[in-house]
Amino acid sequence: MNIVMFTNTFTPHVGGVARAVSGLADGLRAAGHRVLVVAPTFPGMPEDEEGVVRIPAVQRFAGSDFSVPLPVTLPLTAELDVFEPDLVHSHHPFLLGDTALRVAAGRRIPAVFTYHTRYELYGHYVAQDSDVMKRLVVNLALGYCDLCDHVIAPSESIAKLLAGRGVTAPVSVIPSGIDCALFANGNANRARDLLAIPHDAPVVGHVGRLAPEKNLSFLTDAIAIFLKRNPQAYGIVTGDGPQRTGMERTFLDEGLSARLRFTGVLTGRDLADAYKAMDIFAFSSLSETQGLVLAEAMASGTPVVALDAPGAREVVRDGVNGRLLAADASSGEFARTLADLARMQETDAKTMRAEARRTAKAFSAETALNRIVTLYEELCARSSPPVKPSTDLWETAKRRIAREAELFGNVAQAFSDAVLVEGPENGNLQRNDGGTLP
User: Fold this and answer.
1) Does residue 276 or residue 49 have the better pLDDT?
2) Element (H or E) spanning 50, and its range?
3) What value, to the nearest 5°, has the Cα angle with vertex 35 and ends 59 and 179?
4) CATH number of 2-177+365-437
């Protein structure tokens, strides 16, 4: 099959979506399929990329590390004519996501969408985190789902959330895959030597994009409490982002910077070694759809302490492969739980590590790839043969006009629903049918 993917984040941007798209594209190519990725330009991207079309973009939008692609130009159409896609897979409902639907309509091919992100939790990047903006982005994303032939939810929690919010398009739960073998074979001593951490010191670690939506102030406070109460322990933070400076300042102010290692972004073997060097993985985000790093940590045999939220609850089994605390747990309670795991008897720790590795197998790249390929094949089998717009001008124009009307209708409906409802009650977003958006 020839699959064209549209994504607003891609390498060298660091984040769960970029890694998921890159991993899926690599897996599909290794299985003999052709993949073309359409993504924005990013600082530091490779000069020569095979199988990638870059769209000019505004860099570091609203002070973030995201790029916002500009309107797509004619060269993409020429690339697609040569590539001859059988299916479109969109990874965002905005910007290049709209382009994905136009391409699918014009070429009469299926459109798949993966709901990677809880978009209402990213409102701080635009419009001062307004409630109207939160409702608008949610409604746009939900309407987008119903313009696609199939939706992939990375977890059961997200599938239930979509159903509860009224999405009628078919939904399949397929977690993004991870390279279990890579993380299982990390070298803890190598990482600890590079970071000047004693081999026998308890280590709590975190991996992820250091951004406001990740609840990192809570995590920083919890790790600081843990390190203060456990003077032999160290911390590792792997990743980068706008919150890094604030985290570093907090640890410095608390007199803990000598035992805290910020590694920056790591990939491949270096990332696997960092996971392996951790005795406990700490995760406090409430905004995930899957929490890919949780499965990666577990593949390395590292138990997880996390807050109960979508994504985390599909991976962490409380008392089995880690600890899952209430979403409103205090930073002190989180720190005490880190200490409890650090002091576990070796027999209990060994059992928990084995259970973590067993959990990770369900999130293997092979399992995810097989399920996605099966879905692609079923959709293509039910669809009419693809067409080139240049050979079907009138019919292509009609399909594109119809799709533009649908896109405009989605925007109009989303705007109406966002503006014409009353404000949020009890911390939830309201829909115009009187229900709430959890």
Assistant:
1) 276
2) none
3) 85
4) 3.40.50.2000
